[in-house]
């Protein structure tokens, strides 16, 4: 279903994602005759954490007068190519979405509309001149969250609940696990995948099963994990957005991600006549403002926080590189 942005309420804490550096000046677009038409096609509801980050970036750009934003949410895989075509026919300069379930079809649509720029979440490569891709690289922040979890666990077991074992999700969960092991190599890490990108009840059930197996801290790559932690009175870590306001006594840290640097770069290319057929994912790096950790003071031990902050500073300075592991977690 398509909604005009102005009629959509602000969701969750999406506006509280990271204050990323802006790469694109709104004045450039205004000089070219006003806001650029941008469409978002979301396979999940925009309440879903990943989609909410994309949505929040485009909401903010709309409110700044940079873009004129419309979007559809809950678009099925079978309906996705049609939505892409409709937005291209409507004259959108840039279409933002996700092609994980429709890689072949999405590239075919892009080939049929060479004058429209597409920026798609994808595990594949860019295509043609107008099909750009991006992934979610907040694994650096997940590593830092893992460092805190490794220092805090009392049972020696932590858990992660993920969507589907695609490379971006694998890297995120592996990043968390590596952070845990960096400070506490004896910790057991339990991993579950729910087989879909949006099913909070299923994520809750997976979290409860991990708690039953001994986990006393959960990393929620998927919405719903924190419900299990809250129900059982243990701590949890959020991903992509700031979940702490929703779960103030449960979520003590979040591995945040910002889509705005990627959106700004793609807009600059699309309006500047440059090909958008590139991988914009590296703009998610912490040094570029694309991801970071936030945490509640006083929950993790002070010495653990100090050690984590040292690594955080080293990552931002380019002095420490968090390992990238795309393999499916055991």
Summarize the structure in short:
The protein has 330 residues and is an alpha/beta fold.
Query: Count of DSSP helices?
Result: 10
> What gross morphology would you assign?
globular
Helix fraction, binned, reads: 25-40%
**Name of the CATH first level of the largest domain:** Alpha Beta
SSE run: EHEHEHEHEEHEHEHEHEEHEH
Strand order of the largest sheet: 1-3-2-4-5-6
Termini Cα gap? 38 Å
Provide the structure class: alpha/beta
Task: Indicate the CATH architecture of the largest domain.
Answer: 3-Layer(aba) Sandwich
Q: CATH topology of the largest domain, what is it called?
A: Rossmann fold
Structural account:
With 330 residues, the protein is α/β, with parallel strands linked by helices. The protein folds into two domains: 163 residues, Response regulator (Rossmann fold), CATH 3.40.50.2300; 136 residues, 3-Layer(aba) Sandwich (Rossmann fold), CATH 3.40.50.2300. Helices cover 36% and strands 20% of the residues. The chain has a six-stranded mixed beta sheet with strand order 1-3-2-4-5-6, with helices on both faces. Strands 8-7-9-10-11-12 form a six-stranded mixed beta sheet, with helices on both faces. Strand 7, helix 6 and strand 8 form a beta-alpha-beta unit. Helix 5 packs parallel to helix 6, helix 5 packs antiparallel against helix 10 and helix 7 packs across helix 8. The relative contact order is 0.16.
